[in-house]
Amino acid sequence: MTTLIKQHHGRVVDSPGDNLLAEFASVVDAVQGAVAIQKEIKARNDQLPENRRMVFRIGINLGDIIVEADRIYGDGVNIAARLEGMADPGGICISRTAYDQIEDKLPLGYEYMGEKTIKNVVKPVQAYRVLLEPENWRSRFFKKNRAGRSEPYGKSKAGAEQTPYRPKERDKPSEDESKETETSAKAWSKTSFSKHLWIFVGVIGFLLIINVLTWGGNIWFHWPALGWGLLLFLHWVKRS
After folding, report:
1. Which of 106, 206, 228, 240 minimizes the number of CB atoms within 10 Å of its CB?
2. pLDDT digits (tens, 9 = 90+) for 188-222
3. 157 and 188 co-located in one domain
4. Which residues does 218 contact at the CB level (< 8 Å), separation at least 6?
5. What are 143's strand-pairing partners?
6. Does the predicted TM-score (pTM) go above 0.70?
């Protein structure tokens, strides 16, 4: 176990009795190390009779700690110790702070266990079960009922049924709503065209006044007006 911890850039802080406390600079390294340890122990247990097998639980938390010489303590350590007790035999339990760091970085599955009250910690801690075999988890998460429909597998320890989100019928626009939206769009387009038409008339009048005031024997106001008219025509075609 110590070798695997070191391979994942961690250090063993203390190992009283059958417990072990390790520190990692990275949550990713900590979880990868925990997964490697549980898989190694399982592989060895598979070769032993049941009465000789050893099963460990692992708790992981990301939080502040107090360092004193080679020892560490504080809420960060206390939460990790409580999470260990919540883990399944041979499993891993992590806090929400740790989960947020590894959610999309490791090929693992996670199951929300709800908020847990921890002694001497003010706020409840959200806990997650790490699923070491995500492929198996996906296959068992939905089981077929007799009618052939999918229903969620089991409940979390917090008692909340885990159901995937499905769009509700009221989330989908009805036929009447679609028609109303289309009518509103047409009305807006008509209003916009009328507004641009009045702007076009105003621009022509403005250019005509300037042409008259700067009269030099040439009539030129119709050239820029032609460009505006072309844009207005394209707008009318698009509206139609």
Report:
1. 240
2. 455 565 666 677 677 777 777 877 777 777 777 67
3. no
4. none
5. 151
6. no
